[in-house]
């Protein structure tokens, strides 16, 4: 069976044909590790907001209710952690970044996502537009668990999973690429799993 790719066996109907391992990764199967650089923050939903700030004509701020009312998409994607596990066909529900970025005027080309707890990660704007990134608040049909980033996290599945910031509260847009938390500590500034960009210099 080794010559038969997972794409041809046992695939539930409707699942996109994406199961493939980037170099150096292994399939963790049904497991879902929790990787957090600090304690799990707990923000009450009435205190939660999501904002787009920085180099914008006017900052955008959404309450939890306003965020809930935005059209959500169902997303089924593979995720790839820099610690070498990959997980196939994870199912999320969330709001495309496009929906939020459409509401601001900017000449910026980068963003720094910021989170409860102080975590940050940088991303090129061109990597979070055109249906490539979401703010997700549901996983496998349930509200996103706090340990996995609930109430809401970023999901940028085409880059290593450290870019998918948990407990996200917003993004600062900038014309300057400012490294985030792991990027400042030696992880790759971009983090493409298919080019195995784990650390600076890869
Ligand atoms: N706010 C925040 N987001 C974060 C992290 C973190 O420590 N804090 N860890 C990152 C890393 S390194 C990974 S691999 C994934 C892990 O997500 P999980 O715990 O849901 O598996 O979250 C990313 N997002
Ligand atoms: Mo990670």
Describe the structure.
Residues 38-182 form the Oxidoreductase molybdopterin-binding domain. This is Sulfite oxidase-like oxidoreductase. The chain has 202 residues and is mainly β. It has a single domain (49-195), classed as Oxidoreductase, molybdopterin-binding domain (Sulfite Oxidase, Chain A, domain 2, Alpha-Beta Complex). It is built from 3 helices and 11 strands, in the order E-E-E-H-E-E-H-E-E-E-E-E-E-H. The protein has helices spanning 64-69, 97-101, 181-184; strands at residues 26-27, 49-54, 60-63, 73-80, 85-96, 110-115, 120-124, 134-139, 142-143, 153-155, 168-174. The strands form 2 sheets. Strands 1, 4, 5, 8, 9 and 10 form a 6-stranded mixed beta sheet that branches. A 5-stranded mixed beta sheet has the order 3-2-11-6-7. A hairpin with a 4-residue loop joins strand 4 and strand 5 (85-96). The protein is globular, with a radius of gyration of 17 Å. It starts with 25 loop residues before the first strand and ends in an 18-residue tail after the last helix. The model is unreliable at 1-15 (pLDDT under 50).
